[in-house]
Design brief:
Length: 84
C-alpha cells in the first residue's frame, strides 16, 4: 500500500490549507511529523495539528501523541520496506 492510498493528495491539500513550511512538500511534512511522533519527539503546533486532523495520531497530552491504526498503516506505507 502507498501513502497516497491512505491519504489522497486532495486531502493533503485540504488539511494543510495555508500552512507554510518553506519549500518542504506537504506530504513530506506529514511523513516527517508522523515519524517524529512515532519516535516520541516533539512536533511544532501546526505539524501536530495536521497529523491529528488526518487521523494519524491522537493527543494524549500537550506534547505527546499516540499513533492511531491509520497512523501505523501510513507510517509503514511511507517508511516500510517497500519505501526503501
Amino acid at each position: 500500500m502507498k501513502p497516497e492510498e491512505i491519504i489522497s493528495d486532495e486531502e493533503i491539500e485540504h488539511v494543510h490549507a495555508n500552512a507554510q513550511f518553506g519549500e518542504i512538500p506537504k506530504r513530506v511534512v506529514v511523513n516527517q511529523a508522523l515519524f517524529k511522533a512515532a519516535c516520541g519527539y516533539h512536533n511544532g503546533y501546526t505539524a501536530r495539528q495536521i497529523i491529528t486532523e488526518h487521523g494519524l495520531v491522537k493527543s494524549v497530552s500537550n506534547n505527546n501523541s499516540q499513533l492511531t491504526d491509520k497512523g501505523r498503516k501510513y507510517l509503514w506505507a511511507a517508511f516500510g520496506m517497500d519505501g526503501w
